[in-house]
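Work package 3, deliverable 3.1, input record:
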Amino acid sequence: AQKVTQAQTEISVVEKEDVTLDCVYETRDTTYYLFWYKQPPSGELVFLIRRNSFDEQNEISGRYSWNFQKSTSSFNFTITASQVVDSAVYFCALSGFINTGTASKLTFGTGTRLQVTL
Amino acid sequence: GAGVSQSPSNKVTEKGKDVELRCDPISGHTALYWYRQRLGQGLEFLIYFQGNSAPDKSGLPSDRFSAERTGESVSTLTIQRTQQEDSAVYLCASSFQGLAGNTIYFGEGSWLTVV
């Protein structure tokens, strides 16, 4: 069975602070994909990143960076110099690789609500 | 359209009534998914379509829930004899071919309230 755990239910930071959102996953698949989505107050899920399990290089996109550590089954997300517009619920998700039974669905964590204030 | 479109945006219905939720995926996307999000919770997978077939409907919570897809395009999620615990946001998503290796794009959801 697949499972994604986001232990941080809610985080509050002041603008310009850095913040890291934790994601720990469980899967029996040897290859898989990991995702992060942002859900602003409007409700639409916005895709942020997809990583496959055989690429452990960390990734940076502007103020966003992701740290994938296969050894600890973690895929953490850091926002540098946070802004008020970053306020949203962030979801980590997992899916199987092609030709596996888990490839047809995303398993989501329960989300972390990030509140950035002035 | 440019994105996944869902209707209605909001639906309030009386307990026991049937509701239909519609999803228009991104043009050309053969894979379509329905998820449910209860208030303050993560997303629960309901059903996956590849073309007009549903190879995975393991997430449908009961036989009151059904979904169909026609023309490899529009999908309808039907909830019969609605119950209060059905109140949630129902999110539709689509991807080019299957999920693995392809990004899945979500619509804004249909907010269902059963009173």
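Chain A has no helices and twelve strands.
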